Amino acid sequence: MSFPKGFLWGGATAANQCEGAWNVDGRGPALTDVKTGGSVNAPRLVTYIDKDGNPHAEPESPRGIPEGAHYAVLDDYLYPNHDGIDFYHHYKEDIALMGEMGFKTFRMSISWSRLFPNGDEEVPNQKGIEFYRNVFTELRKYNIEPLVTIWHFDTPLYLEEHYGGWKNRKLIGFYTRFAKTCFEEFKGLVKYWLTFNEINNTVMFLEMFGNTASDEDYQNAYQILHHQFVASAKAVQIGHEIDPENKIGCMICGITFYPMTCDPSDILLNRHTWEQGIFYCGDVQCKGKYPTYAKRLWKEHNVELEILPEDLEDLKKGTVDMYSFSYYMSTVVTTHTVTDKVGGNFSAGARNEYLQYSDWGWATDPTGLQYYLEMMYDRYELPLLIVENGLGAFDTVEEDGSIHDPFRIDYYRQHIQAMDKAIQNGVDLIAYTTWGCIDLVSAGTGEMRKRYGFIYVDKQDDGTGDYSRSRKDSFYWYKKVIASNGENL
Ligand code: BGP
């Protein structure tokens, strides 16, 4: 195995899917308290669950909040992001378990509305700052390097309701203040930062296999992205000023796309899908300017962006130090009619007969990961981090309390082998944080039963469970992997 010394093995979570304590110590409600996390960026393919447990389709308008649903539901939501797995009160126990596995790094995010309850305040909530300082200090006790996502879908609800969310340019200023506060307050405790989780979701899933989007949807999506690009670039500049040691990355939802046939129209569509879905955001954030094909993308949907001259300066000055991405699956695109569609949480494509699919229809494809790694390293020549990868699956607790998850171990083994091949081929991969290292609420569906963890959490979708934590077989396996720096698979 070729993993470099100091390789950052670990796991990943997001505040909105694990912290809970949604109204504790001054935290304000976030958009993700009332909608599943994925819906924030990919409004079409998710449902929200009302207090009687009934799923409802998303409303027509992208990013719209179901009318009358939010506060009414908030108090006793059944499948809630806002309860999470109560990491807020269990963090010491959870970090001890991560320490036991030998984690070198832990990816987590900071809840914006815990620091700025409405999002537009000038002064942060001290209790929120205290919480994260305690978490980072606890991580350092175990020599675990925090890897912190500043925004993981959870815009304060107030900003959505009163400003229209990221469509509004004002959000750049609010986010920048939030990011600056994080860099200042956690200086010396955190060195690795990611500005926006899966920033590309906004545009990637607008139109795939039968989903339709209007020109207005495209207009909004590209304008939202422009605001987020500028916000990210400003954050990178501020982060570097506050501490030159800071390493700040982008975070892209990584999917490997294949053409279904060798029909030239499929090959061209595949290239255009990569451009719209994956390269567009990475290119702006890594190269500091809009790519040449952006004009084609905008023209296709009559998009006219509001871009100020100083924005372009910011993009140039605020390029990221590293490229991070999530990777769960590949998908297949075609111009031909497809009847057998399979989907991820946010994506859907044609079935690939060479691959196996998870219970949630995600294609397991480690070779696609190698492909992605080699392609992105060549494109950007920046250190790469895989900050999400994993298999959402059902777990069964045996009578003696043990949990056997060989399927999960197999999945990881294959992906780690693919990473090894990419490293041997020259890729500078520095970190691997598996998604949901501790079971948490699903972003796409709001469920608990779709589990990713090495650590099982007794919280069930029917509201039962005592939140106790236990070790799955994969826990012991991953511990060996880390101890041997990837040799012992
Ligand atoms: C990514 C999100 C995560 C996460 C993961 C798994 O897109 O960044 O927040 O949840 O997908 O998705 P799901 O929870 O739908 O299984």
From TrEMBL:
InterPro entries in alphabetical order: GH, GH_1_N_CS, Glyco_hydro_1, Glyco_hydro_1_AS
UniProt KW keywords: Glycosidase, Hydrolase
Keyword Hydrolase: yes
Active site, UniProt feature: 388 (nucleophile)
Pfam family, one: Glyco_hydro_1
Family, as annotated: Belongs to the glycosyl hydrolase 1 family.
PANTHER family associated with the record: 6-PHOSPHO-BETA-GLUCOSIDASE, GLYCOSYL HYDROLASE
Name used for this protein in its record: Family 1 glycosylhydrolase
Organism: Holdemanella hominis
